[in-house]
Amino acid sequence: MVAQSKRRETIMARSTSFLIALLMTLVLCCSASASVPYTLGTGASLAVEDHAGAFLMSPDATFSCGFRQAGENAFTFSIWYTHAAEKTAVWTASPGNLVNGRDSKITFRRDGNLALVDANGTTVWDTKTKGKDLTLSLLDSGNLVITDNPSSPGRAAWQSFDSPTDTLVPTQPLTKDTRLVAGGFILYYDHTNNLLRLLYDGPVMSSNYWPNPDNNAFKNGRITYNSSRLGVLDDSGVFMSSDNLTVQASDLGQPGVKRRLTVGPDGNVRIHSLNNSSGRWTVTWAATAQPCSAHGLCGENALCEYVPRLRCSCPAGFEMVDRRDWEKGCRPVFNSLNCSKGGAQQFKFVRMPHTDFYGFDLGYIQSVTFEQCAKTCSDNCLCAAFSYRVDGRGLCFPKFRLFNGFRSSSFFGNIYLKVPIDFNISAPAVVQRSSVGLEACDSKAPRIVMAGSPDTLFATPRNDMKWSYFFVFVGILGLLVLLFIVTGWWFLSSKHSIPSSLEAGYRMMVAAGQFRRFTYRELKDATGNFKEELGRGGSGVVYRGVLDEGKKVVAVKKLTQNVAQGEEEFWAEMTVIGRINHINLVRIWGFCSEGKRSKLLVYEFVENESLDKHLFVGTEHRPPLPWRERYRIALGTARGLAYLHHECLEWVIHCDVKPENILVTREFDAKIADFGLAKLSGRRDGGAGGVQLSHMRGTSGYMAPEWALNLPINAKVDVYSYGVVLLETVIGRRVSDQKTPEGQPLEMPRIVQALRRVVDSGDVSALVDGRLQGQLNPRQALEMVRISLACLEERSSSRPTMDDVAKALTAYDDEDEHPAYKS
Ligand SMILES: *[C@@H]1O[C@H](CO)[C@@H](O)[C@H](O)[C@H]1NC(C)=O
Ligand SMILES: *[C@@H]1O[C@H](CO)[C@@H](O)[C@H](O)[C@H]1NC(C)=O
Ligand SMILES: *[C@@H]1O[C@H](CO)[C@@H](O)[C@H](O)[C@H]1NC(C)=O
Ligand SMILES: *[C@@H]1O[C@H](CO)[C@@H](O)[C@H](O)[C@H]1NC(C)=O
Ligand SMILES: *[C@@H]1O[C@H](CO)[C@@H](O)[C@H](O)[C@H]1NC(C)=O
Ligand SMILES: *[C@@H]1O[C@H](CO)[C@@H](O)[C@H](O)[C@H]1NC(C)=O
Ligand SMILES: *[C@@H]1O[C@H](CO)[C@@H](O)[C@H](O)[C@H]1NC(C)=O
């Protein structure tokens, strides 16, 4: 005993001195690598994992280039202003293509080609340059150039200034061959008239909207005879274009201010200036003060309003085509006018004040009365609406399609919509309104998540940069020593490395149940090297495994996405999830988290497949799920969710409630899977305030409207999804598969309307899954549909809580009281 502890002491002393030496090496190493080069020869490369650093920095440190995070696990190769608080890209290689957050890299290949390579080895983008003695440099102007002579970059083999994205930096020319693009919005020189213009180029239509298309060039202060087609923002804040457009930033002439000119996602062009002390950008010029004058913001038949944020809405009598996408616009709820009937239909016109739809005119008539204008539209079957301007000139514009709609109190013109004469416009309003989320401010919450990187994580050797061979060598040596010491300590103290702040909680959990940490090796063996796949979903693939020498069957889930970024966060989530224990929730036995390996979760194995198989997939071996079991599963699911929402140690939102995530036991008890993978929200939010999740989870068809409308998310999103599942349990079909007689997908508001009528009649038997052949409890069925309707309320605050739902279902659970029930 004594000898052993002595030995332990000497080893400790030795490793401590090692550690000190190592720390000194690391300090030296770091201070050396802090100076980022501004020019590199071929052979250099940067891995995406080093995204905190830069690949290159301009000599005066104004610009940096390297990897920039664009989503949870998605990166771009970009250039940005070094001193801005956030990496706002002024240039991006191939903006549409993001690369994985692991294993991707940018390489200046030996043959002179600069290439961006994704995790799976695909070259996402390259400069296609070739040459022996090429160098890559980032200039003080923000231009990234490849040239054979860095001292005269004029003869560049390739330069980023030639392929701008949505931004111009000072001195970067916009030419007849370049354009700025943001979504469907394009700033470009029109070759036909030499004008600098803004164009919306969408999937259904395209149209110019700046400068004001109602005026000619001269009236807009432009000239058309200078064909040099060149625009430059200079260092003092003046943007000058060859068509005589000259604009000035409001902080004109202040020395040393960093600026950029951009086309925003809302189609406006702005100059932004960087505030030295805060590192934030302020807008110092905008092309239009009226945001809705950009075209294409809201899609066909929709209206744009600025009140005081950009909003899209559908006119009365119209509804959104796709609740997640304003670009698809609105469609009429009345039968659209049918021209092939030969004008036999009767119309009336509905007035929309202060409104216009730009373009798509059948013609243009001047000096006519309102009645004449209306008659022109009535007589032309193609006319869908007309615009009449009341400014004394009697301007009449009959329109065949309605795009680029806007409403503004300062606009003095009206639109008159043509509708069938029997259409009751004062009927329950179908107006939907929502903010578009198109503000110029850059969205902070990253939304895009790339798939996890392949298992070849450590297999690909990195190309080392010439200039850092030495430091890389020292670094690797240091890491090896560190590894050695850590392993030594680990064995000595013979316990796993648990973040100290969480150790207490972990120990409690281990003591309380069978929750524990597994090693990767253990789980690899238990699953026979991840052989038998049980299923796969958004968060990962599930494998069957056997533990405790074949005694315990488990389900091992390999997470494909980073549910939590850091080790500490993952631990924190595990300590919460591990403590959750309820009969209607899938039990979690443990987890495995080893460095950069995929994280694994070990769950109880549930034999009887998921609810979707029972409800939607009928086979000869599987008779339709009987009524009693349906009710039992609905009630169990409600109780499980109520527990998650109200009784857990911490308040958990599931965010992806759907039949696939409801597992069924042999006894037909429901067990909810996959909870806790969405971000846990603090209890202090109390469910009322709502939280902002950083990215969208959930499955289309089950997602509450809040997701699409960008509203705060709270537990009521689960209530909505539960409402859909409850309805599907009754009808035995997917709600999202419901079609109109014409084969169009039925939207949820219409389904809800129809259901209301059935519920009001007091008998829902006709709705119930036909395969049951009337074997059901009608009172339970009525209650289920009634609850489902309450859960599907558009406004989250009108929906019941899961506690309410569980109580209401429990009240009807007593089957013996209902003789109508035939088992
Ligand atoms: C690599 O991944 C990208 C996107 O993740 C995909 O589009 C491409 O097809 C993949 N290529 C190969 C060879 O797997
Ligand atoms: C045309 O525009 C360019 C660039 O703004 C300018 O240098 C040139 O003098 C202009 N030419 C004429 C004829 O105005
Ligand atoms: C060009 O713009 C300037 C002011 O910005 C104006 O004084 C000048 O007359 C314009 N030139 C032409 C030809 O319109
Ligand atoms: C901002 O900083 C730059 C250099 O860091 C300096 O040259 C410039 O004068 C500063 N501008 C202002 C307005 O403080
Ligand atoms: C820059 O930011 C600081 C701190 O946010 C603020 O006090 C200052 O007024 C800003 N300067 C300008 C010119 O906007
Ligand atoms: C229009 O009416 C004609 C004749 O009644 C019919 O054949 C056609 O399908 C209708 N079109 C639409 C879009 O309703
Ligand atoms: C139109 O709807 C209103 C309100 O729903 C109703 O009072 C009115 O009777 C309806 N008119 C016709 C002609 O259907």
Distance between the termini: 71 Å
Strand content: 15-25%
The average pLDDT is 78
How many domain modules?
4
CATH homologous superfamily of the largest domain - what is it? Bulb-type lectin domain
Provide the structure class. alpha+beta
- Specify Rg, calculated over alpha carbons: 32 Å
CATH topology of the largest domain: Agglutinin, subunit A
What is the CATH C-level name of the largest domain? Answer: Mainly Beta
**Per the principal axes of the C-alpha atoms, what is the gross shape?**
flat
Largest sheet features: 6 strands, mixed
How much helical structure, as a percent, in the residues? 10-25%
Strand order of the largest sheet: 36-40-41-39-38-37
Task: Give the total of beta strands.
Answer: 43
Q: Could you say what the CATH architecture of the largest domain is?
A: Orthogonal Prism
Catalogue the ligands. 2-acetamido-2-deoxy-beta-D-glucopyranose
Q: Stretches where pLDDT falls below 50 for ≥5 residues?
A: 1-6, 18-34, 427-449, 451-470, 490-502, 679-696, 816-823
Number of helices: 13
EC number: 2.7.11.1
Domain Protein kinase: 528-821
Binding site for ATP: 558
Catalytic activity: L-threonyl-[protein] + ATP = O-phospho-L-threonyl-[protein] + ADP + H(+); L-seryl-[protein] + ATP = O-phospho-L-seryl-[protein] + ADP + H(+)
